[in-house]
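Sorry to interrupt, but I need a hand with the structure work. Leave the record below and I will have a look:
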Amino acid sequence: MPFFRRLRSARSTEDSHVPGLPVRLGISGLVVAGMVLLAAVLVSVGWWGARQILLDMAERSAQDSGRIMTERSRRIIDPAVATLRQLAFDPITQATHLDERLARFGAFSADLVANPLVSAVYVGYANGDFLLVRSLRGPQQRRFFAAPEGSAFLVQTITGTPGGQQEGQYRFYSTDLKLLELREQPDYHFDARLRPWYASANRSIDPSISAPYVFFTTRQIGISLSQRARASDAVVAIDMTLDDLATNLGNLRLTPHSELALVDDTGKVIAYSDMSRVLVQDGDNFDFRSLRELDVPALTLLAARAREGAPSALYRASGQEWLGLSLPFDVISGHALHLLIAAPGDELLGQLERNRKTMVLIAIILVIAFLPLGWWAGHAIGRSMEGLALQARRMSRFDFRNMGTSRSALREVNMLTEMVGSVSLTVEAFLDISAILSTETHVERMLQQVLEKFVQATHCEGGAVYLWQRESQQMQRAARYGLQDALGDTMPYDLQRVTPPDAPVAADEQRRVALDLRGRNGSLEGLLVLLPADDSAHHDPRFLAFARRLSGMLAVAIETRQLIAAQKNLLESLIRLMADAIDAKSPYTGGHCERVPRLATLLVERLAEEQEGPYASFRLTEDERYAFQLAALLHDCGKVTSPEHIVDKATKLEVIHNRIHEVRMRFEVLWRDAELELLRQFPAGLPPEQERQLRDRLDAQRERLREDFAFVAQCNVGGETMSEEAIARLRQIATQTWQRHFDDSLGLAVEEARRLSVARAGQPASALPATEALLADRPEHVVDWDDEHRPPVERDNPRNTLGFDMVLPRYRQNMGELHNLTIRRGTLTPEDRFAINNHIVQTLVMLKSLPWPESLQSVPDTAANHHEKMDGSGYPRRLKASTLPLQDRVMALADVFEALTAADRPYKPAKTLSESLRIMARMCGEQHLDTELFRYFLRSRLWQVYADELLRPEQRDDIDIPAIEALLVTA
């Protein structure tokens, strides 16, 4: 390191081993001839040459500034001249009525919009009429004219009345040329024919241009351009602003205190950097000050010299020298203007004067001081410093490699060479450490690489990094490099020891330097142990202090990576906690959120290892692999919102409870009704034969009730299919009636009572006893959607921002008894099926709302796409195979395989391996699963690994892989 090399060189006993002459002799050897020549050139030729160059450059800069300003001004005026020529042919010049003139307002407004420097366009007629179109730019103009809100244009008109009077009007228009207000102006009248612009207009090709003046309304400098119309005696004119002139003058200054002004041939100042000094108010009018009234002596003298025929000159004004230049400003035709530019000489040549005095003084001192040794030392030092200059040049270009240099005859030069080399090596080591800290993510590899660079940069003989193990309360070695003496695998550490940040660090009896590695909050992260060399540099306390400061980078890097790892573990634990909670929510789906990620991860890892075949190019980075694992764990997180009684619905009539018990009670009522009917028909002294017939009829009715209830109960269980005959029989059974003797509106929850009230449409309840159907779909069984619970899953729903494309059932819930009992397959109604499928909608909504980092942006889509199908008929977004990444298709396959082989579903028995794989093959034929991926899954026998670990023995039957693949070909 540079500083301990410097310390070593300070010791006289070590300096004697460095060859060469003392540096005090070498520094004295300057080149005498060069110093004398330098003094002569700087004092004489350099001064006069530089002075002339600066003056020439200043004059050229002033001329360039004048040309720039002239050109800029022409660009302002020329478009206006072209516009005026065009307007001279406009039909408005021949219009005799106000309506005809206003009809051309659109053309005038377009000219105003096209040229923002044109403030007004107007026409004066031979009869004294006048029309002006003004663009209202800025709040000042709007306030001046009291314009209504939204005004963009003002049309001012003066028209003669039959009585010889003049009528003045203001019309305010919006940007879309809509009339906002018509305002009568009785005081607004004048004869346009008496205006100077009207009188000066002629029929030549070139328009008449006025001298610059100050507009009354806007207080801007401008000119008026006028031209007589080609087909009438009307005169068309344009007002345009030249307020850029003052701004340009300020921007074109040669030096901070340069003076620039634009004057006319009478000496009036048209433009100056501070226009507040130029404008003079006379009542309601404004005029320009003269150059003498402006009281700028430098410009006044320059104007006088220009009138004498000297456009450029050096002169004195106000006690200082000035460089002045007068340039013609022939932009405005017919008006002679001049641009005056004056720059103070001390600002142009001041630095040159100071440099001359400094150079003279330095030259005298150098010549006197180095004259005796100049000739001899100049040659030696020049040759010796070439190597150092080359190395320094490489370092200035960020090349810190030590290229090696030859020995010099000067000892100090050799010492400086060694120091420069040491600096190069140290900086290079620091750059390597910085690169390692910013790129290496694994703590162990990072520690090993950083330790190597650390030991090399500090020129130690060895070192080790220990990490603090909070469980065992000791230091455990994580990396080592170089000499390993006295560096064990573990190291004791006293937690009670308190080391102030500025406390000195010393080596122990084994020459070990132990440095605490503490995080930003002071927490102990580990220990850095160095084995320094036994020399003066490493015994210096400054080296030990430097090493401790340098170790802070390593401590922060360890803390940061451990913090990232801890946060990563916390995130993964929270996700696993949610997945376990979803599994624990239902006893019938327990383990689903654990089994699907296990199978999906197993399959995607095997795919990433393929070296040939269709998946040879598929690879996963660490971030992609981690994102897929999180997505697999979260693929059903939306189930936290799914109603348990629907997820666990084992029978058709089950809501919060199984309503088959209620139906059975109705059959019990019918049973009792039959017995009571029979008892009513038993008069005293009934013949035995009639009594037997009545009892037989009762037994037959009881048997029919038993059969009907058994059939209803069987339908309630659900199955693969339900025939039309069964549905017809259910509807026939439902026609039986029973008598209700109690009010069915008592003891209801608020929501249930509201539905019953809506169903009855405000009508009173039926008189008791009421006749009820045995099975019925009642209006109060239907729960409609409301704004709070209606999910935005339809394609045309404006609240659908995530691309959902699902069919929303008509009702939120339908608890109708016949509606549920006639379910043809399974136990779920369309409303129940949507409530379950809605979990994937909630999965995407929940995960999209989280602030995922860039590396985990794919988690929401991968988690939510496992119910999509290859043909685009899946849900929730009807995505096709072309838009589904391979990871999403893996999730879909894993979810289907787990669902088919799961043994904890209440609505189906567990399927065997062969049956499950055959069903999946048919699903591939129907474009529900990825055929190529399923073929890979089949041949890889990953299903066997999954089955051996998670399936019951009776499910693990023999698999005929060729036969199942044949189903893929057939499909």
